[in-house]
Amino acid sequence: MYNNVLNIIQQLIRIRTHQPEGDESDAVKYILTLLDPTRMSYQIVQHGQNRSSLIVRIKGNGEKPTVLFMGHLDTIGLASTREWKHYPYSADFDGSFVYGRGANNKGGVTAMILAADILAKKDKLPCDVIFAFTADNDENGLGAKALVEGSFLEDVGEIIFVQPTNCNIGIAQKGVAWLDFEVKGHTSHAAFPRQNADVLKLVLDYHKRFCSSLRTEEAHPYLGTNTCVITELQSQGFARYMFPEAAKCSIDVRFLPSFNESLIYNLIRETSKILSKNNPECVFNVSVNNFRLPCAMDDESPNIKRIEQIYKQLEYKQKKTGIYYLCDVSLVVPRLGVPFAIIGPGEDIYRSNKDEGISIDDIIKMARFYENYVMHI
Fold first, then answer.
1. What pLDDT does residue 353 have?
2. 3 CB-near residues (< 8 Å, 6+ apart)
3. Can you spell out the DSSP letters for 107-164?
4. Dist CA 21 CA 101 (whole Å)
5. CA–CA separation, 355 and 200 (whole Å)
6. What are the Cα distances from residue 339, in Å, to 9, 65, 106?
7. What is the DSSP letter of 165?
8. What is the pLDDT of residue 185?
9. How far, in Å, CA of 172 to CA of 216, rounded?
């Protein structure tokens, strides 16, 4: 099995599926060469421009609701390869780890492929099993949206989202809101500053006030606190000694399950109203160009307790965790309303964007867990 796992993950890394192009169809074609069509059925969901998602179904006896495993094929882009010791698409292997762009999420995809092969060879399964390999997880969720809106997942009763959690049990994910905030004021000479002319200060004031409104007394046990950061800041000026006439910023907001959609939108509007009232000569505009709800399971929910029991039987380390970054969970769970967990091999790459690598042993470990999760449903 070890050599087979190594070959699969290396080939997946070498197939470039980085954003913004994606090109996930190339990975879909490769995955189909690894699956036995006599033991499972599949559907390819086309998104155009060489982008597609793959749905693989293995029939069971129907005693239990369908289980869905969902992992993604796209990877985040590369700004530079200079700091990489291992070239991002060489899939170097050092005897334990394989290195390359997408190693972590494609390690999860490899575990899904192994689990699908194992389950398809069993005589009896207690339920249908779906393996969904999606496009565009790291940007707009093109694949997940198509599967949910196309009614491909209507019979699903439980979901394992295959995301890099270092094999820990993920039970919660933060919500996300991307804000675009703009102030239009009046140009003024820097030697004679006026409050309503300092549009950059007003943009920063909005950010400060909004951050303050998000503060909570207690941190979430798995998600920490709400965060609110400026990721882009621009101004429209024509001379270094003049105040710019307008300024705008992009704000990334990550919020806890205790904050719902109406509360977040109300805070967005109210913060803008306060500034507008205090600065009547300025025009304020705020828009939300991406909004994802937070999702969380209770520690004592039956599916989480079952996962803990399976981990105990397999002698795996039991540690629950939360997911801070954006993924398909926030597009699927609010629509389907079913129990879920987020579990996969590899560590998230957002803390370090170089020399991404994954343990072959962890891929095999997770494939074994996915098999047991179905058989013990």
1. 65
2. none
3. HHHHHHHHHHHHHHTSS--SS-EEEEEES-TTTT-HHHHHHHHTTTTTTEEEEEE---
4. 15
5. 38
6. 29, 11, 24
7. S
8. 87
9. 17
Distance (Å, whole) CA 376 – CA 211: 44
Give the predicted TM-score (pTM) of the model: 0.92
Report residue 99 as tokens: 């290195």
Q: Which parts of the chain fold into alpha helices (H)? A: 2-14, 24-34, 103-120, 142-149, 199-213, 261-278, 302-314, 329-336, 360-375
Asked if residues 316 and 165 have their Cβ atoms less than 8 Å apart, the reply is no
Q: Which residue has the tokens 């239990």?
A: 64
Q: Judge whether residue 254 has pLDDT over 70.
A: yes
Closest CA to 69 of 375, 377, 299, 373: 373
As a dihedral over the C-alpha atoms of residue 271, residue 275, residue 276, residue 281, rounded to 10 degrees, the angle is -160
Gap between the Cα atoms of 50 and 15, Å rounded = 13
Report the alpha-carbon angle 261-262-263, nearest 5.
90
Give the pLDDT confidence score for residue 238 in this predicted structure: 82
